[in-house]
Amino acid sequence: MKWETHRRITKFAWRKLNLPERWTGSVAEASLLPDRIPEKTLKVGSSGKVYEGRVPHHEPNPDLIMKHIWKARLSLLERDRIQFVKSLGYALHYIQDGMVSMNKKFLLFSYKSYEAHEKIEEDLRLVPLPSNAKLIEKCTKTVIKTPQQLERVIQKVSPREDIENIMLLASVYTLVTIGAMVNGNKFPESYKRNYLHYADRHGKFLLASTLISLVITLPLIYFSSILFVFFPFIVIYSIHKLDFSYSRSAKIAEWYGEKKSILKFLV
Questions:
Q1: Which of 24, 71, 99, 138 could staple 170 via S-S, CB 3.0–4.6 A?
Q2: Where are the alpha helices (H) located in the chain, listed in sequence order?
Q3: Spatial separation of the C-alpha atoms in residues 70 and 185, rounded to whole Å
Q4: What are phi and psi of 127, to 5 degrees?
Q5: What is the spatial distance between Cα 51 and Cα 60, in angstroms, rounded to a whole number?
Q6: How far is CA 132 from CA 57, 171, 204, 232, in A?
Q7: Burial class (CB in 10 A: 0-12, 13-18, 19+), 46
Q8: CB neighbours (10 Å) of residue 10?
Q9: Strand partners, 54
Q10: What letter would DSSP give residue 95?
Q11: Full pLDDT tens readout for the chain, 267 residues
């Protein structure tokens, strides 16, 4: 998208959520950061040579978007407004650019076309922002309570060719993403109960597995090899990572700034 379009969409979403006007300009400018300060990633060329290239904007990796969303959310909880705005800007840019197709269709075929892409971006400058009041109200009232719910939204970001549809979806996804990060700072009781339950169970699992693995390992070290000293650590780490119920609830707790670290070096 052109910078003008990024600014328009971001300001539109920020204002529809009735967020502080004094931050509107900063957030809009932050949505241009991936163009001004491009992120780099390792790529493999046609010859098989590995090189450092620019992170793709129009086919963004959902994990990359979520990385910036997480950084923005945690920065907001820590009241680091500058880092919040910066990380939010990166996430919004990739979401918005991710709606714009790089391809052109010919009969049953589709191929990358810079000219077709440029035309879409130029045309988007003239497309009005969404005016469907009911839809906008629904988006502003959409309650996303967990990072997993937001991640499912982000995974739906995909390129389109119809300019009205691009503008609508880019605006809606921007609205929902900002809303998910700035609203709902209170840890819901149901999620809190689940987290405390799974955290308690997780701690007991780790303690029990530590004791059992030590009982098994000590004779092995004595009669066999010192290398078995690593066995308890492997067992504990495996159990920690395979406890998916705890992992999910811990992520939600972290989203609300409520995570109580258990064996912090393992997290």
A1: 99
A2: 3-16, 24-30, 33-36, 62-77, 81-97, 114-124, 133-140, 147-154, 163-182, 189-223, 231-242, 244-255
A3: 14
A4: -80, 130
A5: 19
A6: 28, 12, 52, 59
A7: exposed
A8: 27
A9: 40
A10: H
A11: 999 999 999 999 999 999 999 999 999 999 999 999 999 877 777 677 777 778 877 788 999 999 999 999 999 999 999 999 999 999 999 999 999 987 777 666 666 777 888 899 999 999 999 988 888 888 888 889 999 999 999 999 999 999 999 999 999 999 999 999 987 778 889 999 998 898 888 888 788 877 877 777 777 666 666 656 676 677 777 777 778 888 899 999 999 988 754 433 333
Structure tokens at 170: 């880019």
d(CA 197, CA 214): 26
At position 162, the amino acid (one-letter code) is D
3-16 helix and 81-97 helix, angle to the nearest 10 degrees: 120
Tokens, residue 117? 């892409």
Token duo for residue 75? 């920065």
Residue 143's CB: how many other CB atoms inside 10 A?
A: 10
The tokens describing 47, both together, are 């010859």
